[in-house]
C-alpha cells in the first residue's frame, strides 16, 4: 500500500506573534510512502530537489524512525518519493512539512495508533516550537500557548477571506540559527507590552478585516527590527508593498521570505510591486498571491 501525504507551507510569527502564531498557506510539499522488502529508497523532484538528502539523514525519514521508535515497532522497509514546491531555508516551514509529513505518513503505515492531537504534540517536540508544525498539520491560522499542565493549547484564529497573504521569496537563504543569533536575550517592559497589544490587535484585525487595525497590528519589537538588516532590500520591498496598498509587511518565519497582507482588490498590484523592488536590486524573486489553507495535512492518495 502506498500513501501520499500533502502538507502545506506555513508562515510564522506574523509580526508580533513571535514563536506562537502561524498560518498554513496554499503551497505544498507531497510525500509518497511505499513499502519495500527492506532498507530505504528516497527520490526527490521539484524546487531545489537536488539539495535533498537521499539517505538515512533525510529529515522525513528521520521523523519516520522517531515515530516507530515512539510506538516501539521496528522501522519497515520504505520508499519515500518527495515532490517539493516549498523552498528550503526561506521561512516557509519546509522543515515543518518534513516533520509533519513523516509523522502522518508513518502513522498511516502503522495503522493510525496516534490521534491528530498526539501527532501535533510529537511534531512540536521534534521541531521545538508549535508555530509552524501546528498549522501545517491542522490548517488555518493558529495561536499556540502552553497550558497549565504544560500541554499546548491550540486556538483557531478566524481569517477574513478578503485578506490575501502575498509572499515574495528571494533567491537567497537565511538560516533559522542565524536569524535567532541576532536577537537580544532580554527585552524591556515597554517592548513586551507593545507586542502583547499588537498581537491582540492582529487577532481582531484578521478576523474582521479592519484595515486600520491591520496596519497597526503588523508592527513588532521582538524580532523584526533585529532581523531586517539580514535581508537585502527589505526596506525597499516593504515600502513598495505599502505604496501599492498593502496593510503591512512582515518577515515570514525567520526569513528570507517577506510576507505582505493586502485586500484582495489590490493583492496583485502588491505582488508586482514587491517583485519589481527586489528585481531592481538584482535579486531574483518568486512572488505569489496565496490563500490560507484551511484543511492542513491530508492523505490524498492510498493505493
From TrEMBL:
It is found in: Cytoplasm. ATP binds at residues 87-97. Residues 205-277 form the GHMP kinase C-terminal domain. GO terms for molecular function: ATP binding; homoserine kinase activity. It is an enzyme of class 2 (transferase). Belongs to the GHMP kinase family. Homoserine kinase subfamily. This is Homoserine kinase. It comes from Leptolyngbya boryana CZ1. The gene is thrB.
